[in-house]
Protein: CBS domain-containing protein
Organism: Streptomyces reniochalinae
Amino acid sequence: MTTAADIMHPGAQWVPATETLDRAAQLMRELDVGALPVSDPTDADERMCGILTDRDIVVDCVAAGHDPARVTAGDLCQGTPRWVSTEAGLDEVLREMEGNQIRRLPVIDGNKRLVGLISEADLAHHLSDDQLAEFVERVYA
């Protein structure tokens, strides 16, 4: 059975909710990623409070006339964070992403530590053309 651990891009990194968006953007560039899970630094377990994307920074901050050196990652986090465990099967990954219409899904290990992120590109390597078309239709509907 294919698991989330098989699909994910390993080595995902947190950005603290208190981090400014200009620094978050620099981290995205350094890591060559378009999204970063956001952690709540007031929580001793560093629980995830959302995901920040490059699009969020551009649309919700820069295009809205805000200063990315003053707006924090936590300011843009909305909704309930979603994730799967490393042991989740492909069907569970697809249900979570399709059911919540999300394009990136954090993967958490048994100790509740962030160990990876699953993106559409990661899924494309593990799905048939029909499965991929169905995924895209459901997520972008």
The longest strand covers residues 48-53. The first helix runs from residue 4 to 7. The two ends are 28 Å apart (CA to CA). The chain has a mean pLDDT of 90.
